[in-house]
Design brief:
The chain has helices at about 30-40, 55-70, 95-110, 120-135, 150-160, 165-170, and strands spanning about 5-10, 50, 70-75, 145, 175-180, 185-190. It is of the alpha/beta class and about 200 residues long. It has a single domain (about 5-190), classed as Phosphoglycerate mutase-like (Rossmann fold), CATH 3.40.50.1240.
Length: about 200
């Protein structure tokens, strides 16, 4: 039996104050953007809100959850793809160009991982598993998944292999991508202009 069509609003978290701590909060700009996101999505008949357990992802959907009177359900497997160990190898993140190069290397070889990191293939598998589980459990209306840029892109790549590094590099903070999976399991991906 075919599964009913599902609409998933994949959200990249808003801007956070940078630190290596995964529980870093949104910046003031990110907090304002989370309110704008809530303004934009408040009229959508969302039935479920899931979030990475990182604080910045939770804070991105908190205003929306409050307006819709829905809980934010934490999904640890929506966490960002770990690029390397917390003790970063010398030079891997010396500047923005080096960071982008390190990310690009993971897109060029899906099973490659930097020391202590997670491969794109492994991160994609856990992200897609969450999405499929939520599809089965919450097929009564649109779902929101608040996550991170690389994981969001990896989930979309599962459905459309043409989506990759360049898509990730073009994402904003926050950003919205609407993934519709029809009853024949065919995807449609749409990134709306919303700001």
């Amino acid at each position: 039996m075919d599964q009913p069509a599902t609409v998933v609003y994949l959200l990249r978290h808003a801007q956070a104050r940078w630190s290596p701590d995964e529980m870093r909060p949104l910046s003031p700009e990110g907090t304002r953007a989370a309110e704008e996101l809530a303004d934009h999505l408040a009229a959508v008949p969302i039935t479920h809100i899931a979030s990475s357990n990182s604080l910045r992802a939770q804070q991105t959907v908190a205003p929306l959850a409050k307006r819709l009177a829905l809980p934010v359900v934490l999904e640890p497997d929506l966490r960002e793809r770990r690029l390397t160990t917390p003790a970063l190898p010398a030079g891997l993140f010396r500047d923005e160009e080096a960071f982008r190069g390190a990310v690009r290397a993971t897109w060029e070889a899906p099973h490659f991982a930097h020391p202590g990191g997670e491969s794109n293939a492994a991160a994609q598998a856990r992200g897609v598993a969450v999405l499929q589980r939520l599809r089965r459990a919450h097929n009564d209306g649109p779902i929101v998944m608040s996550t991170h840029g690389n994981l969001l892109t990896l989930i979309l790549h599962h459905f459309d292999p043409s989506i990759g590094f360049d898509f990730w590099a073009a994402l904003q903070m926050p950003d919205i991508v609407i993934l519709t999976i029809d009853d024949q399991n065919q995807p449609e991906i749409y990134r709306p202009e919303w700001r």
